[in-house]
Specification:
This is Solute carrier family 43 member 3. The protein is mainly alpha-helical. It has one domain (about 1-105). The protein contains five helices and two strands; from the N terminus they run H-H-E-E-H-H-H. Helix 4 (about 85-95) packs antiparallel against helix 5 (about 100-105). About 0% of the residues are buried.
Length: about 110
């Protein structure tokens, strides 16, 4: 059955390649969060949460602690959901296979 083995090899390679693309596109938002926060701050996301504050010697400073808290909340929720959904995805994977699980995950 050389044709069947060749077909399975192609399927494995395609599964690996598409899985790698999925990880790069979707997991990068969680695991590359430190770099992403820097870019989001430069783009002024949640900049409305920054307020003027009086520092030492009556100097005006910009207090963005509420902005940092918002970014921290987003990371916490994303990390929790990443770990929490492992069990249902495992069930789907065992029950329906790779294709259904990956489509549901996306």
């Amino acid at each position: 059955m050389p044709g069947l083995e060749n077909n399975l090899s192609v399927r494995r390679c395609l599964t690996f390649a598409t899985g790698l693309v999925e990880c790069l596109c979707f997991a990068g938002a969680v695991f590359g969060w430190a770099s992403l926060v820097f870019v989001l701050k430069e783009d002024r996301y949640f900049s409305s949460l920054c307020v003027n504050a009086t520092g030492l010697n009556n100097t005006q400073t910009l207090d963005c602690s509420a902005q940092d808290e918002q970014f921290s909340l987003i990371f916490t929720i994303a990390s929790f959901m990443n770990n929490f959904l492992t069990l249902p995805h495992g069930f789907l994977f065992d029950r329906f296979g790779t294709t259904v699980t990956r489509l549901y995950g996306m």
